[in-house]
Predict the 3D structure of the following.
Amino acid sequence: MKLLTKAQEKKLIDNYNLQEANNGELEDIKVVAKIFNPYGRGTWYLSELNPDNKTAFGVADLGFPEMGSFAFWELEQTKVPPFNMPLERDQYFPENKHTLTECLE
């Protein structure tokens, strides 16, 4: 399974372009996708995606949640031991409902 649908990727890029156009001053952009490790710790909530370098912005929770940028391409390439399984997209996560601030809590 791909980590993002084409519609999610487009929305993430649109959010990135919107932030760039507003000098990063928009607050509470909604989360578009949730990626998680089904075999252990690790959840990522994405609100933006830079299409040039595949850097995402959102909340990464690896035991304690932090907001910031992370390499989306690394999430795509991650294989979880012991069976080298990929991360997964939460297909039931409601898009554009929660803000990043809510995901920090």
Summary: Residues 24 and 64 are 24 Å apart (CA to CA). The two ends are 28 Å apart (CA to CA).
